[in-house]
Write a structure and sequence with these properties.
Blueprint lengths: L1 H21 L7 H20 L14 H21 L4 E5 L5 E5 H24 L10 H7 L3
Antiparallel strand pairs: 1-2
């Protein structure tokens, strides 16, 4: 299923960025904020899908270990949702207060594109400083993993 490949690629890309940003740690906070935002944002949406109240409203800086663990746990949740809930429709309230609904499938697509967007911001951050940053494009994922 194509969604499972996107899960694998997202985990691969996120872990590559975690290793890059934390080896050695970037002195600027923004890259760490973006990684935490990706990971915690997924958890907020997973809580909405499971109709659990989210206690997270801020995206604090996390350690390398916390990010790795969080992304790995999120992968398990992605797989569970893909296996059982894709066609379910959830009602939710955005941070702005607006009420809306969406299928779990559409929420997962949102999360994948959200991750791509912020990894692109990471790439732009490092490109401004002429740093050689990881290529986490989908095609590169396929080539590196010989898929």
């Amino acid at each position: 299923m194509e969604l499972l490949r996107l899960v694998d690629q997202s985990l691969w890309a996120n872990l590559r960025w975690v290793e890059f940003v934390y080896s050695p740690p970037d002195p600027e906070a923004r890259p760490r904020e973006l990684l935490a935002h990706i990971m915690v944002g997924e958890q907020v949406w997973f809580a909405r899908i499971d109709d659990e109240p989210s206690t997270t409203t801020t995206f604090s800086l996390l350690s390398r270990a916390e990010l790795v663990q969080g992304f790995q746990e999120n992968t398990v949740t992605y797989r569970r949702l893909i296996g059982s809930r894709l066609d379910d429709v959830i009602d939710f309230r955005r941070a702005s207060g607006e009420k809306y609904h969406a299928s779990v499938r559409d929420v997962l697509y949102h999360l994948f594109t959200h991750g791509y967007h912020h990894r692109g911001q990471l790439a732009a951050h490092y490109a401004r400083n002429s740093a050689k940053y990881p290529n986490t494009d989908h095609i590169n994922f396929l080539m590196v993993n010989r898929l």
